[in-house]
Amino acid sequence: MALNNTYDARLVQQETAVGAGAQILLLALLGPAIGMGPAGWVTGLVFAVATWAVLSRALHRSRPRSFGPANRVTLGRAVLVGGVTALVADSFESAPPVSLLVALTAVALILDGVDGKVARRTGTSTALGARFDMEVDAFLILVLSVYVSTMLGPWVLLIGGMRYVFVAAARVLPWLNAPLPPSTARKTVAALQGVFLLLAGSDLLPLPATAGVVLLALGLLVWSFGRDVLWLWRTSRVGAAADAGVTREARRKESVAAPVTEPVETMLETARAA
Question: CA 223 to CA 252: how far, in whole Å?
Fold first, then answer.
């Protein structure tokens, strides 16, 4: 049995290696075609290695029997996001084709709606798969916000950084780690971030319209995060009040029971003395 588990684990780890290889192959195709500079090459390779290392560690901890078709779709999206990351890094040295960046981003966003459906239809939904999908989405939004910030200013980075600020705050405020109820509005706002940032980075709109689109994206994101944080805070207050009520009730019962037990103990001591 142990041999079978080891064999399965090796197969799963091979999937991550294939993903890293696909990332390097994509860079090898993009680099000569657009004349990618050192910044793009280094960033793309670092992304490939980091994705392989983090995903391999997560798979080692969760020890799934197979990688799963949905995770393969997400891994393909991660490869595309790595290509977008390399192009954005290269944009600080040169001007990569906007059409290429838009194409890679558009395919990655379209596939975002595929991996979840594949997981549900194949019955392979896992916590690791959901986290993998979420991290790929969050990093793509961060990279796109960096790209658009070069046109509109550093305030755009609030869009990409908000999720990471929330994660950091949750380490200090444990009540932020409580599970949130499912929300169609939250999913819609998250999906629109990528669409709006892609539209802003495509150079299809005049600058004022581009700024308006990004401001709308930021406003929706602030509303979504604000609503969730408020819900978590209220839930934590209700839970704290309930815990306090249980503690008070337990103390009350102890105080009621104390006068009854005390005379009995006194009588026993008196009887022993006699």
Answer: 43
Banded pLDDT at 1 (limits 50, 70, 90): very low
Report residue 267's pLDDT band, with 50, 70 and 90 as the boundaries: very low
- First-to-final CA distance of the chain: 72
Q: Which two tokens stand for residue 208?
A: 């004022």
Q: What percent of the chain is predicted at pLDDT more than 70?
A: 84
* Segment 140-191, tens digit of pLDDT: 999 999 999 999 999 999 999 999 999 999 999 999 999 999 899 999 999 9
CA distance 4 to 12: 12
* Distance in angstroms (rounded) separating the CA atoms of residues 57 and 49: 12
Instruction: Tell me the whole-structure pTM to 2 decimals.
Output: 0.83
242: its two tokens: 């309930």
Give the number of other Cβ atoms within 10 Å of residue 94's Cβ: 12
Cβ contact 232:176 at 8 Å? yes
In this predicted structure, the answer to whether residue 88 has a pLDDT above a threshold of 90 is yes
Instruction: For residue 258, give the amino acid letter.
Output: A
Cα distance between residue 91 and residue 85, in whole Å: 10
- Distance from C-alpha of 217 to C-alpha of 148, rounded to nearest angstrom: 12
